Amino acid sequence: MYTDLEVYNKYLKAAQLHLSGAELLCHTENVKKYANGIGADWMPKFTRKIISEINPTLVLAADIHDLRYAQGGDELDREFADNEMLQNGLKLADDRYMWFDPRRYICRLQMRKFHTILREFGGLAWKKGE
After folding, report:
1. Prediction pTM value
2. CA 48 – CA 40 distance, rounded (Å)
3. What are 87-125's pLDDT values in tens digits?
4. CA quadruple 46, 35, 95, 26: dihedral, nearest 10
5. Which of 39, 36, 19 is nearest to 95 (CA)?
6. What does the domain layout of the chain look like in residue ranges?
7. How far is CA 98 from CA 89, 95, 110, in A?
C-alpha cells in the first residue's frame, strides 16, 4: 500500500509526463485501495513485489491501469485500459532511458509483453459493467 506522499509523487510524475489517466491518481484512497504494482490482484503479494522491483519504470503505468480496471465497464473500456497502459509504459521507458541506452528497448519490449498478457488474460480481473 502506498503512502499519501507516494501517491502525490506518482500524480506529479504522471502529470509531468502527460500520461493518460494521470487524473485518476488524484483520488488517494482509490490509489491506496486498488493500485498494487505490476500483476493481478489474485497473485501473491510477494510475486507482484518481485515483478514490480524487476520493472520499476513500468509501475506507474500499472497503477493507472489498476485504477481503470477498478472502474470497470464493457470490453471496449478494457481494451482502452490495456492500450493506455501500453502507451504510458512506452512513455515511461522513453523518459527513463536515453535513446542510445539498450535498457530503453528492453523496457519497451517488456511493456509489450505485459500488454500481450493483459489482452489474453486481463478479462479475468476486469470488472464488467452492470
Report:
1. 0.94
2. 8
3. 999 999 999 999 999 999 999 999 999 999 999 999 888
4. -150
5. 19
6. 4-124
7. 15, 7, 17
How many whole angstroms separate alpha carbon 89 and alpha carbon 20? 10
C-alpha cell at 84: 493506455
H-type alpha helices, 1-130? 4-16, 28-34, 45-54, 59-71, 75-96, 102-121
Describe the crossing of helices 102-121 and 75-96 by its angle, rounded to 10 degrees: 170
What phi-psi label fits residue 114: left (phi over 0), alpha (psi between -120 and 50 degrees) or beta? alpha
pLDDT at 128: 62
